[in-house]
Amino acid sequence: MRITAAVLHEHDKPFAVEAVELDEPRAGELLVRVCGVGMCHTDLAVRQGLPLPLPLIFGHEGAGIVEAIGEGVTRFAVGDHVVMTFDCCGWCPQCLTGQPSYCAEFVLRNVTGRRVDGSTGATADGGDAVSSRWFGQSSFASHAITTERNVVKVDAELPLELLGPLGCGIQTGAGAVMKSFDLRAGQSLAVFGAGAVGLAAVMAAKLVGASEIVAVDLHANRRELALELGATSVIDGADPDVAPTILGKANGVDCCLDTTGVPSVIDTAVAALGPRGRLGLVGAGGGQMTVQPERLIGRSATYILEGDAVPQVFVPLLISFWQRGLFPFDRLIRQYPMDAINDAERDSLSGRTVKPVLIPQP
Ligand SMILES: NC(=O)c1ccc[n+]([C@@H]2O[C@H](COP(=O)([O-])OP(=O)(O)OC[C@H]3O[C@@H](n4cnc5c(N)ncnc54)[C@H](O)[C@@H]3O)[C@@H](O)[C@H]2O)c1
Ligand SMILES: [Zn+2]
Ligand SMILES: [Zn+2]
Predict the structure, then answer these.
(1) Ligand 1 pocket: which of 179, 282, 334 to mutate (most atoms <8 Å of CB)?
(2) Over the stretch 10-41, which tens digit does the pLDDT of each residue have?
(3) Which residues contact 319 (CB under 8 A, 6 or more apart)?
């Protein structure tokens, strides 16, 4: 079928919104009409970094309606409303013990742009294969082919154009706090980088009753939003005394979440940890860490993928928090027509928009 997709042809060129031919879903796959898709910083960061098979369709925070199902699909039907998330195999030890983001096939299924067998179901005008399996979905498009394992069914009454970001950025920040750290009432958290991931962490920390929630960011508008969403204090990331300020305020925090991926910020986060503190890293910066081993005495650090979430359990939970007014993630979102994807990227990089959501044209 003919679909419209935002295709990246070269690493440093704008996205091109154009017609693409998409094959029918294969066995175990679903065709989803995309109603809204979040732009995650990962879509933008890998542009420069990873050696991806271009042309490629990014987008891994899609939500939409199932339009067709492949052979053998039993858990979903045409007309179901779904949020798409990361893909996993379902059968490796990590999947079977409830840690699907550490699936043995995570890289193969999510960041190669291809199916596990190397194929893709999309072709550009002119005949070039277009990689269309980014995070098992490639949803910067009017339609996406996904699998039974990486979709979460949601209530048909919910506004689908809002829900896509729950599938990656929002679940990553909230999951880091609620699952990875298992932050308890009365504990303290510092979040470095108040973008979509960091602000989701702030909201989750407020929800669990954290005592101190410190948000650090370079942008004044994001620090302001952090205060509105539950941060108890904010610090300008350009301030040379970020760590001493946090140490003075909270005697070192129980947990630090770095979403910047900047090595010097990670050093600061380590310095801001209190005794037995825990550092979570999620940022895709590519730099080298320079932490002195002794700085981690009694402390720990881990790189968290997708907030350690099982999306089929965690996304509905976040939706229920949102419905009860406890998790207002919609305040991070600004909608753009899919045609304006390059404006959305510009506004994300400038800090103006925290979470762009692209709306495909009917
Ligand atoms: N590990 C995962 O599973 C996972 C999932 C989603 C996103 N990510 C990654 O998480 C990171 C955050 O994603 P996002 O969508 O929130 O991005 P974002 O760009 O919206 O947020 C990053 C924030 O960090 C701030 N920042 C940068 N340098 C800083 C500094 N020196 N001091 C203080 N703040 C600074 C920026 O101002 C920005 O607000 C990205 O690297 C993304 O690729 C990882
Ligand atoms: Zn697996
Ligand atoms: Zn993401």
Answers:
(1) 282
(2) 988 999 999 999 999 999 999 999 999 999 99
(3) 154, 155, 158, 163, 166
Residue of 197, 329, 333 to test ligand 1 pocket, by largest number of atoms within 8 Å of CB: 197
**CA–CA separation, 353 and 285 (whole Å):** 20
Distance, CA 40 to ligand 3 centroid (Å)?
Answer: 5
∠ CA 236-242-247, nearest 5°, is 135
Rounded distance, CA 142 to CA 32, Å? Answer: 9
Task: Kindly give the pairing relationship between strand 56-57 and strand 62-69.
Answer: unpaired
Q: How far apart are CA 172 and CA 66, in angstroms?
A: 25
Name the band, by pLDDT with cuts 50, 70 and 90, for residue 49.
low
d(CA 196, ligand 3 centre) in Å: 10
CA 42 to CA 34: how far, in whole Å?
Answer: 19
- CB 198 less than 6 A from any atom of ligand 1: yes
> Which residue has 């190397």 as its token pair?
118
User: For the sheet containing 300-303, what is the strand order?
Assistant: 233-236, 213-217, 189-192, 253-258, 273-281, 300-303
pLDDT at 72 over 70: yes
User: Which ligand 1 atom minimizes the distance to the CA of 349?
Assistant: 19
Ligand 1, closest atom to CA 194?
A: 39
**Is the CB of residue 216 below 6 angstroms from any atom belonging to ligand 1?**
yes
Q: Are the C-beta atoms of residues 60 and 137 closer than 8 Å to each other? A: yes
Q: Is 249 helix (H, G, I), strand (E, B) or coil?
A: helix
Amino acid sitting at position 81: H
Distance 226 CA to ligand 1 centre (A): 14
Crossing angle between the packed helical segments 263-271 and 242-250, to the nearest 10 degrees: 20
- pTM strictly above 0.90: yes
